[in-house]
Amino acid sequence: MANSLSIVEQHPAIWRGGNANTPQPNRTPTGYASLDHALRGGIPNWGVIRLRHLPGTGELSFLSALLKNRKQTLHSAFVNPPGIILAPWLKQLGVNPAHALLINTDNELAKWATETCVRSSACHVVFMWVTGLTVKQARRLQVAAQNTQCQVFLFESLTAARRSLPVSLDLSLQPTEQGFSVEVHKQLAGWSHQQIPVYFGYTPNNNILAKVFRLYASPTSTSLNLQG
Amino acid sequence: MLWLHIHFYQLTLDNLPKVKQRENIVVYDARSNSIVQTSGTAQQAGIEPGMGLAQAASLCETLQVVDYQKQTEMGYLHSLASLVYQCAAEVALSPPAALHIRIDNLTRYYGNLQSVWFAIKSVLQERQVHFHFATAGSPEAAEALANAGTDIFFIDKNTIQKALGQLPVSALSLEPKSLQALFRAGIKQVKQLLNISPTELGKRFNNATLQYVFALRGERHHRLVFYHPPAEFEQTINLPYEEENTQRLLPFIAKTLKDLAVFLRLRNTGLLRITMTLMFRDHVPFSLGIGKASPHFCEHEWLELINLKFETLVIPAPVIAVAVCAAELCETSSDNEDLFNNRTGVFAKQQLIGKLTARLGESQVSKPMWPKDHRLHILSTTSKNADNTCYNDLPGIILPEPAQLNESPVIEFGPVRIETGWWDEKKYKRDYYIARNHRGQRMQIFKESDQWFINGWYI
Fold it and tell me: How far is A137 from chain B (nearest CA, A)?
């Protein structure tokens, strides 16, 4: 018996979402297998990617594998970061500090600055921390990013109300003990996913010390109150 | 020797915007209390230079009057001289509104005299200025012919003599007393003047007249000081009307940028910075500087930068004049850049930085800095010593001022004791910890005088 859906598929006016005519970006793997599987290969190479997160939970560090693989001749722009970013940290992240631009201005001009950076074709990735991005502005950025093959990472707080935007990828990073629990709200030509666990550690901790103490300290001596 | 004299009889009017030039405008000199320049339509109404203001007003009702300012006219003359300097080597200014140009030594370069004239004429026509011209064997003779409105490019000596001879004596630049004396002596035409022997002239007229006649004959070597282009570029644009909207200043500035392009090309320098001063009627003049990352001069790029700067500019009063000064020049060395490799990338990056600094301000756009030592807030732009320093626990975001810690996070890593700065006054002894709060956010904290502070966040 023929698959009943195959007859429907043969109709010229019917097409599947994955086979649409819109140009699909190539994807770069993030390095976390569970996430890459859900994202059909990884983060798209161009377009606006929104990361809803809580500040200070490792939102930029987890993109480190992605940034290390990119070619380094073009600029990386950081628009309105929440504080001062130092060059040695960027180097550890995988971004050449000589090719990084830090821009600090008010919210509305920050949106103009991002668009200028994207359109200039001098940047291959732009990280923006702006609030209140409207649908129209997001669409403009998406089109500009497509034209110049630029990745734009929009950082938004998890506590802000989620407004649906026309972006290539919409992720929420919920912090957990071992890393993140990622929710893919939507992605271009792909399904949404819930609660993808991502295990990663990006800061040093005292685990080794704790292990040593547990091994050699007597049970009666006062513990040093270290956790982790 | 062959000299070309160009008399610009309408300098102020030529520098007004084109729209205005079609109306009835006259230029009035307050000192001589007469009209010195008239536009074409005003002339049709019957107004001539030399008339008084009342007479002109009675001839034409819709007359517009512009003040004659010597300074501005000299400025225009200088810019015209630098323009002609591109074609001819020996250019001398003849105030108030004329140029002497020596052309017989240019034939080697151009080939023949006609080409010389063609080159100078095309350069002036591009500027769309009105002028009378004439050639002669000496500057004074050429001046006399041009002032009479000859407008013929003579090459032959005899033709020049004939034309000069036919001029009335009043066309010469002599003192009125000497002119009177000549009339009384019955000398009406220059021909007669040139025929008198010097000794006879010397008996009746003063030394100045004598010297002038010698110069006319071509027997006296000229004593002109030739024009040298200035080392600095500074041009003031006097607006014909007060302008409130900064965007409408751009066409005037575009004209100045063209002159600046010529200035830079002649000296083979690049421009890094422009200083623009906006002048108001009652307020203090306001200066602003606009810098560009690449020294290569491109007119429309500069205009775009100025446009971006003006967009966020708020002026206290309408602008009456704009002064443009080239502040920072630098050598252009284009021989060490590979023509094909990464060319678009380099220009695009410099353009981007230029655009961002023009709109946002120079302090808002920066490159990440390297900490000079472990104190993290003393930063430098180069990584000479800091390249190899390993920061194990550097937070991604460092707060400009440490914030107070108001919750109780759990310590994950630490302490890392930084004790440094004993060589200057800012001695330092802090224990840094990495702490995680209940929401999962990681921050760098330290304790100082019994208070906990947050130094940065680990993004």
Answer: 19
Q: How far is A72 from chain B (nearest CA, A)?
A: 12
> Tokens 């071992």 — which residue?
A178
Q: How many residues does chain A have?
A: 228
The answer to whether residues A47 and A96 touch, using CB atoms and an 8 Å cutoff, is no
* A17-203, CATH topology level: Rossmann fold (3.40.50)
Q: What is A25-76 written as a DSSP string? A: PPEE--S-HHHHHHTTTSEESSEEEEEEE-TTSSTTGGGHHHHHHS-SSSEE
CA angle B337, B342, B346 (to 5 degrees): 75
At B73 the three-state DSSP class reads helix
Residue B42: exposure state from Cβ atoms within 10 A (0-12, 13-18, ≥19): buried
Residues within 8 A of B (CB atoms), A 88-127 only: 88-90, 92-93, 97-98, 100-105, 109, 112-113, 116-117, 120-123
Confirm or reject contact between B376 and chain A (CB < 8 A).
yes
* Nearest-angstrom CA–CA distance, A151 and A68: 14
ipTM value greater than 0.85:
no
Q: Which residues does chain A have with pLDDT short of 50? A: 221, 226-228
Cβ of B442 within 8 Å of Cβ of A203? The answer is: yes
The 10s digit of each residue's pLDDT in A99-125 is: 899 999 999 999 999 999 998 888 889
Q: How many CB atoms lie within 10 A of CB A128?
A: 25
